[in-house]
Amino acid sequence: MFQIKIFNQKHAMSLRVTLIIVFLLVGCIPVMIQNSVMLGAYRQNLIDNRMQEIQNQCWILSNKMTRIGYLTMEPRDPLLDNEMSVKADMFNGRIVVVNRNFRIISDTFSLSVGKLNVSEEVIRCFDGENSSKYNSEKHYSALTIPIYSNSQEKEIAGVMIVTASTEDLLNRISIVSEKGAFLQLMIFSVLAIFVVLLVKLLIKPFRELQRMLNRAAEGEMDEEVSSYAYKETMQITETINMTLKKLKAVDQSREEFVSNVSHELKTPITSIRVLADSLMGMEDVPEELYREFLSDISDEIERESKIIDDLLSLVRMDKISGGNLNIAQVNINGLMELILKRLRPIAGKRNVELTFESIREVTADVDEMKLSLALSNLVENAIKYNVEGGWVRVTLDADHKFFYVKVADSGIGISEEFQEHVFERFYRVDKARSRETGGTGLGLSITKKIVLMHQGALKLQSKEGEGATFTVRIPLTYIS
């Protein structure tokens, strides 16, 4: 995974490069499309004008042939033949005249006179349908113009076939294309300079943001990151500042945790040492006092062991993810009854009434061992931090999506100012009371961790002197 991240980082594209490419494409593609469209339109316009010009000139020739009876005269009019040759040369093409018998009577190339021409275009022209085609592959145009027998009857007596090359037009288009390419190059050069300057201006706030983040990465986390050039940078700034605050809080929490762990582990050891030193410093110690000291030492050792066990539980849960839970279908009603059965002797010693109300049968996907530990912690705390002769009520309910466990007690309650801290490690509202009851300050932290691992939620409602209610909500179906 680490190697993949490095590979991705090495091949990640710079935002600056990305923006330059995008802006250049956005600017260049329309210019290229416009140039292509205009060049195509210019080319088509030249060809259409050439064909229209040829058609007009050939109609003039056709009218002259009709007036002088060119198709029937012998010999042919040399002036008209000469004019026909001049026009063919002018269009860089060829003019052929076919009579009613489909025989060629005139050819400016003098190659086909006397031969037959029974092409589809000639037949259609005799039927009154003129044709005008352009061959884009060979770059020439072909037209058919009717020749009438006389101007009164309008009877088609012959057909003039005209072919004209467009090579000269293509040369003109090529010249225009070269000039257009040069203009495009100039536009692209100016656009590239403009885009580079624009992108430099646009990413300047991000550069500044990066500089601030680098300073934060070097350890200057007290300096607030701020960039308000764009709405996006404002949102990023707010998110980063929130993250930095959380990081500082985590760092502070880590320091407090280390300090608390040191203190909690050191306190029983100090007590054991004091008790042991006292025993060693006394002569002829009575057996009763000796037993009392040893009992106190045993209690401190047990307390030390419990702290270590809770710490190990927290460490194990910090290391594993939700996917490592041993999920199975568990009857929550039976689980709660088993938990309460184990805790009733503790409640009996403190004269606390422990009741369980099951609204409905509940079966859910949970890790039975971990959930049992979490719920046991809640009920045991409710018993330990209760008043003499008080009560603890445990309620189980469910809807179509979640099941709920409420643990309410008549205990000392928790002031609002302390409620947001009770789930922190080693945090205890009444440290003296916690020490009397043997609490380590890790129970609620472990409970919340387990509930979160089950994709659930843990809420507290309490007022000082009026007891507390902890509500656990966990999905009936675990989604990995």
Comma- or semicolon-separated keywords:
5-stranded mixed β-sheet; disordered N terminus; alpha+beta; Beta-Lactamase; Helix Hairpins; 57% helix; 5-stranded antiparallel β-sheet; Heat Shock Protein 90; 3 domains; 480 residues
Your description of this structure?
- It catalyses: ATP + protein L-histidine = ADP + protein N-phospho-L-histidine.
- This protein is an alpha+beta fold.
- The protein folds into three domains: 65-169, Beta-Lactamase, CATH 3.30.450.20; 231-317, Signal transduction histidine kinase, dimerisation/phosphotransfer (DHp) domain (Helix Hairpins); 322-475, 2-Layer Sandwich (Heat Shock Protein 90), CATH 3.30.565.
- Helices cover 57% and strands 16% of the residues.
- It has 13 helices and twelve strands.
- The strands form three sheets. It has a five-stranded antiparallel sheet with strand order 2-1-5-4-3, with helices on both faces. The chain has a five-stranded mixed sheet with strand order 7-9-10-12-11, with helices on one face. A two-stranded antiparallel ribbon has the order 6-8.
- A hairpin with a 4-residue loop joins strand 3 and strand 4 (140-148).
- Mean pLDDT is 81; it is low at 1-7 and 431-439.
How are the secondary structure elements laid out?
Elements: H1 2-10, H2 15-68, H3 78-90, E1 93-99, E2 104-107, H4 120-126, E3 132-135, E4 140-148, E5 156-165, H5 167-202, H6 204-217, H7 231-281, H8 287-319, E6 328-331, H9 332-349, E7 353-358, E8 363-366, H10 368-384, E9 391-398, E10 402-409, H11 416-419, H12 431-437, H13 443-453, E11 457-462, E12 468-475
Parallel strand pairs: 7-9
Antiparallel strand pairs: 1-2, 1-5, 3-4, 4-5, 6-8, 9-10, 10-12, 11-12
Helix pairs in contact: 2-3, 2-5, 7-8, 8-13, 9-10, 10-13
